[in-house]
Design goal:
- It contains 3 helices and no strands.
- It has 148 residues and is mainly α.
- The protein has a domain at 66-138.
- α1 (2-32) packs across α2.
Length: 148
């Protein structure tokens, strides 16, 4: 029984991950359709740097994106700025999709839980509590154990 629960949870985790990756990989094509070609005149995202404050201290830079693995060793500064700009353009859409996925997963979990009897639901709750205690004793933090 426990192996089945772990297997189902693992399958659910992978399905969610694949859905997010699929949506994220499809976004560039959906977004690029119908847009005019970019002008490479050099006045890109680098020109939007904040001015230094009058008190002489350097202004804190806006948080930027994160380069994909291994890109940092091969891209130029201009390419780095372009990548950050691309990431910023998609960030809001991706955040909305992540929220929608979380909502759908919660809805799915509620429907699946409705299939169980009251006794089965209480047994599942008990098993989850035991697992949470074990994780807590080991110091493992999960999304479910994080405060909301």
């Amino acid at each position: 029984m426990r192996q089945v629960v772990r297997h189902d949870a693992r399958r659910k985790h992978w399905a969610t991950l694949l859905l997010v990756l699929w949506v994220a990989s499809a976004l560039p094509w959906c977004h690029a359709e119908g847009q005019p070609p970019k002008d490479d005149s050099g006045g890109g995202a680098a020109s939007s740097q904040p001015a230094e404050p009058k008190d002489g201290k350097k202004a804190r830079k806006k948080p930027r994106g994160r380069l994909p693995r291994y890109y940092g060793k091969v891209v130029t500064d201009k390419q780095r700025e372009e990548v950050y700009g691309i990431q910023a353009r998609y960030r809001e859409q991706i955040d909305k999709l992540r929220a929608e996925i979380a909502k759908l997963l919660k809805q799915q979990e509620e429907e699946v839980s409705a299939v169980l009897t009251d006794a089965q639901r209480s047994e599942v709750a008990k098993l989850r509590e035991e697992a949470a205690k074990k994780r807590k004793s080991r110091g493992v933090k999960t999304a479910r154990s994080a405060p909301k």
